[in-house]
Amino acid sequence: MKRSLATMGGLLAVAGLLIAGCSKEGLNGTADLTQTPPAGVTNETQAMQSLAMTDAFVQNDELTFADQAVQPMDYGTFGKIDAALMPLRWGRFITGVTKTVTTTVQGDTLAFTHVAKVVTGTLKIKGITGVGDTVTISKAFTDTSGRNIIFKRVAKNPKKFWMNWEPVASSLVAGGTFPVPAGNQISIVKVEFFLPQGDTITVTDPTGYYLRYRWHGFFKGGRKDLPELISGNAVRVRATVVSASADTDIVAFRYGYDLFNHNRRQRMAMVSEVNNGNNTFTREYESSWMVHFHHGYFNAGIDALTRATLYDDAAPYSVSWWGVPYRVN
Description:
By secondary structure, this protein is mainly β. About 10% of the residues lie in helices and about 50% in strands. It has four helices and 19 strands. Strands 1, 2, 3, 4, 5, 6, 7, 10, 11, 12, 14, 15, 18 and 19 form a 14-stranded mixed beta sheet that branches. Helix 1 packs across helix 3 (about 55-65).
């Protein structure tokens, strides 16, 4: 099942409704489907795929990593500048998203739906050249991402077949540049999410680590409950990145929305670095953030870019990004 996103406007409108807390929403922010099936859905498999496409976390994961404007760097100082560009602001702008959904049923009780996306767009960098000119550099990009959703059978009603399965858990979303540029590789290898109540979510396999929707008490699978956060609480996140760049990478933390459906972006500070001896480096980054006051379904994003992606106008775009689903009540 494939769908090409012709415009981002419709997706933003849907995300805005979810964030506002529509009174008629069903499971996980989806529309109320108790009366009629979704358009074009004629069987259970199609129903699961449709639910996966309209899942709130699936719908806004690429929005988490998109910018509404070329924003300030806010990344401090990274040592001497020896590349072709001194960046002042940057932003990632998405122009198209193509989704492919596949479903595998295991037995008669569980099903796994995989949502793959191809995300295209332009990275824009406003900076100063070596001769002092202010320029805007554009780099076209193609990212791919994957996320898995677990469905559980809750009924066997032939008249309302589209309600026989419900989503009960989601993996993280993992994405990045495809194909990976030779000599400019970067990859997130671990994320730790430190929750206010003292629990920690540690992930090394993003699409194989499932977070349960706690509001489905009958589902016992998954690793931990999906974080349900309270506005104003402090949350800390740590990311481990392996990079082929000898220069310090740029890692941003993205989360939530404001009243205009814009996500927020802040720098993550590097707290450790190890030279692996094989032309790669392992670096750890940390950031703390205050849970926003907008309720709904979101993805906390870790966005890692090679230094050359922003500092060298001739270098290829190379990024790695993971998103942790969370809900604000």
